[in-house]
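Title: Prediction job returns without error message
Component: structure pipeline
Severity: low
Priority: P3
Assignee: unassigned

Description:
Job completed but the reporter wants confirmation the result is attached to the right record. Sequence as submitted:
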Amino acid sequence: MKVFREVGRLLVMSGRAHAQWELEVSHRILRSRTRLMILGALLGMVVIGGIAFADEINQALPNIIGGKEPYSPAFYSPKIFMISIFVGLAAGLITGCIGAGGGFVITPALMSAGVKGILAVGTDLFHIFAKAIMGSVLHRKLGNISFTLAIAFLVGSIAGSTAGGYLNRTLYEYNPTISDAFITIVYVVMLGFLGIYAMTDYIKSKKSVAEASRTLEPHEEEVRVKEEAITGLSQKLQKVNIPPMITFDQGVTPGGRRISALFLVISGMIVGLAAAIMGVGGGFLTFPIFVYVLGVSSATTVGTDIFQIVFTAGYASLFQYAIYGFVFFSLALGMLLGSLLGVQVGSIVTKVVSGSVIRGFYAITIIAGFINRLFALPDKMRKLGYIGLSKGTTTFIDRIGMVVFFGVILIFALWVFKVFFSNISVLKGEEPPHSGKTVAKGGEA
């Protein structure tokens, strides 16, 4: 249990750091007329072009570069497009309101909607890449980027992304069901770690009067660490003298800190491998690895993480999935549109909802995702001949997981919008958020 809690804690903290990046990107896109025009033009091309040429494209296109036909057609259809917007909206609401975890539900949601796992992974990666490019956050964060750290890290992340993409494609070419089962198992394990930690953290917070009385915003809890303090593991690694040595954090510690580029390459390989297999950009792992393993300050970590996301997600989505036909571009644009709106609404709602309620919803959402992927496994194991259950039984189990998952997400989304619209006056600043009135049902005054 202690191991589960520790891994879960690190993933939650990194998820919160990544959520802050999502919020910054959303602000930058929605507040720029030029970026909105570009997004509108892209969406218009997908919608108009897809409607006009859907049948012709589906019948006439040659094989995708790489010799592998995509699992699903890469053109627009109203049903798929609306599903993508809903998935992006839900993920954005979770990210904005809870402050972490939204990106963890996209691939499971797409797979539950009938999209093959490898296509869900590739599409999610492209969605993250498009968001990073459109957000243009690099010029705002240049002061916090250590380019020497980033370059060494990217050497590893490119290698890891190549290996992860090759693994997913190889499994898919051998047997699409094995590919789906593999991605599903990875998510079961990861969401299991997160779910156990999130639920125990929520129960602990409910039992503690002191914790329940805290008024910190969700993004402020445990996101930062003291810049000068590093873990014992970090100290040991920084004492290993394997050339070339990289110096960083000169503005944090006199003379800076030094670490072997070898450890950065290895870390990059881990992040790139996870990003290419799961389709989450790798940002959720960069934060705990940099801060708790390598001993990099959180300020430098955030800036360098933003930098690596662009290249890791871009390389993995384009060169490991898109050229082989495993990116559904209209789906990615729909998710981008939905997530931009969801992050904004979710972040605003945090002003009138207590941290305890948000932790509760986070735990329930992650566990619902865990149940969804866990209940999807029996049907895949049946198709592979590993279990003897009937098709009707495994299909029923799978549908239970889908109902639980989408039911929880729908309830959460409705609750967020209810709180948002019922507290318009508070959110506009016409009255203080904790003026003695009950803020919203389900929330705390």
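Comment from assignee: result matches the submitted record. The radius of gyration is 22 Å.
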